[in-house]
Amino acid sequence: MVNFIAKFAPNISDVTAPLRELVKKNVAFHWLETHEKAFRDLQHLLTDPATLRYYDVAKPVTLQVDASQNGLGAALIQNQGPVAYAWKAMNDTQRRYAQIEKELLAVVFACTRFHQYVYGKTITVESDHKPLEAILKKPLSQAPSRLQKMLMQLQAYDINLVYKKGSEMYIADALSRAFPPEIIPEQFEEDIASERFIHLMSSESYVTDRKLQAIKDEIHTNETMQVLVKQIQDGWPDHKILVPSEVQPYYPYRQELTTEGP
C-alpha cells in the first residue's frame, strides 16, 4: 500500500527511511522511539489531505474492495489516486461466511459507505475474487439466499465489477487486514440494510436506462413475471387461494404493484 501511495505523498522516502533500515539483511530488529515516530508520521502521511485527492463529480469512479478473514477494506479512487478509505471489522456472524459471501459483503460495504459519491453514477468495482463476476451476471433467482440479500442492496447502484489480481490490490487488501477492533452494532447494520432496501423499492429510486431495459427484458422472458403482469392487469381476487401459486407471494403487495406500457 505504501509503495502505491508513494507517488502521491511528498517526502515519503525520508519518512520511511528508519523503517527500511530495520528490514535490511543482517540488521537486528530493535523497535526504538525513532521507528515509532516514523511509523506514526507515515500513518499521518497516508491520510493527509495533501495525499488524498479531491473528489471530482465529472471523473470516473473506481472502488477497490477486499475481504480478509475478519475485516473489510475499501478505497475510492479517481485518476489512479486515493480519494477516501474505509474499513471495518466483521461481526461474529459475518466471520463465518463463505469467502465469496465476504467478498460480496465488501462490495456492499464500499457502496453504502461511499453512497454519496457513487449513487447515480456508473462505477467500476475492482475485486480479487473472480467468482464474483459470474455471480453478478446471473439472474438474482439463481443466487444463494444470503447472496440474494446482498445483491438486492446492490441493485441501487450501477456497478461494473472487474477482476484484479490480489497482488495489485494494495490499498483494499491492507485496509481489510488493519481494521480497528470496533464492530458496528448488529441492529445498526440491519437498519442500514432496511433503509437501502426501502429506498430501492420506492418510486423515487434511481434506475439507469440500461438497467431499466435489462429489467424489462427479464420480465418479458420470465414466465412467472408474465403471469404476475397478467394478474395485475386483470385485477386481484378477494382471496389469495384464487391466485396462481407462482404469484401468491406477491399477493400481500398487490395494492402496490402496477404495470406500464402495453
Automatic annotation (TrEMBL):
Name of this chain's protein: Reverse transcriptase RNase H-like domain-containing protein
SUPFAM superfamilies, per database record: DNA/RNA polymerases (SSF56672)
Stored InterPro entries: DNA/RNA_pol_sf (IPR043502), Retrovirus_Pol_polyprotein (IPR050951), Rev_trsase/Diguanyl_cyclase (IPR043128), RT_RNaseH (IPR041373)
Limits of the Reverse transcriptase RNase H-like domain: 56-157
CDD domains to which the protein is assigned, alphabetical: RNase_HI_RT_Ty3
Database matches in Gene3D superfamilies: 3.30.70.270
Entry keyword Transferase: yes
Keywords for this protein: Endonuclease, Hydrolase, Nuclease, Nucleotidyltransferase, RNA-directed DNA polymerase, Transferase
